[in-house]
Amino acid sequence: MAKNKGGTTVIIKKKGDGEHAGHHGGSWKVAYADFVTAMMAFFLLMWLIAALKPQQKETLAFVFKDTKQGSPSEIKQGVSPAMFIPSDAKIGQAEMKLSEKDQLKYEVAMLVKELLAQHQEVQNNSGLSSDNAGVLMQVNNAVMFAQNSAVLKPEAAKLLDGVSTILLAQKVDLVIRGHTDDAENGNGLYPSKWELSAARAAACLRYVLAKGSGAIAATRMRAAGYADSRPLVPVIDEGSRAANRRVEFYYHSPGTETW
After folding, report:
1. Given CA atoms 238, 248, 141, 115 in this order, what sign does their dihedral have?
2. 117-130: pLDDT as tens digits
3. CA distance 99 to 228
4. What is residue 69's DSSP assignment?
5. What contacts 182, CB < 8 A, 6 or more positions away?
């Protein structure tokens, strides 16, 4: 407190450091907490990725892949492999103890894997996956049929011979599913895409039954056409359309009702 020349009392008040710090003291704590949380989430993600098997990493990579940037061949390879099958596995050498149902799926999946490995073109246009009920082999129409046609290509015989061999070797049933793209019309031979896709599935079924020479009961097989109702990838260009034109061979336990 001081007096000026006029006798007026002048009061000088100084702000301490503590008051200034109180105004900003909490903000850095919030920012630091956000940073620590983000880093913890990042390292947890890194740990989870490191724990994945190679097949699971490939599947995860495809989920996040921008299909607009992928080539048609990359899109065709989008089917994930059966998760319980190591890349170097062989028939009869399961790495873990499996239930009877899973053992059957394992054996079928290994036979399918060997079938695909025998033919490079088929392998480049196919995929293998599994679910709780069975094993799915997915083959692009580039190997099976010409566009808008239900006439089997000559090169399809090798694949269908293998399909028949698996049915003869294993006690499983088979559903064959035909799929078209959104633009196919059957060239006037079929009223719609539904009949075209069903005719493709039926053509495969007839071949497999004939190859079995009576050893494969017709009751073990079914054929279904799905037209373009179950696209494999979103339709964005001709490459994605080609990927959606496919035939699926689904091996499953006899007691399972599936189409």
Report:
1. positive
2. 888 888 888 889 88
3. 36
4. G
5. 228, 231, 235, 241, 244
Q: Which residues, 6+ apart, have CB-to-CB distance to 121 below 8 Å?
A: 143, 155
* HSE of 45, CA atoms in CB hemisphere, 13 A: 7
The answer to whether the Cα torsion of 211, 216, 217, 219 is positive or negative is negative
pLDDT value for 105:
86
Q: Which two tokens stand for residue 143?
A: 């190997």
Give the Cα separation of 242 and 247 in Å (integer): 12
Q: In whole angstroms, what is the distance from residue 23 CA to residue 227 CA?
A: 67
End-to-end CA distance of the chain: 95
Quickly tell me which residue has 């679910």 as its tokens.
Answer: 131
pLDDT at 210: 94
Fill in the DSSP letter of residue 65: -
Whose tokens are 């028949």? That residue is 164
Predicted TM-score of the model (pTM):
0.66
| Intervals of the chain under pLDDT 50 | 67-87, 94
Characterize the bridge pairing of strands 134-140 and 173-179: unpaired
Helices marked H in the chain: 17-24, 27-51, 54-63, 72-76, 100-118, 120-124, 141-144, 156-169, 193-212, 238-244
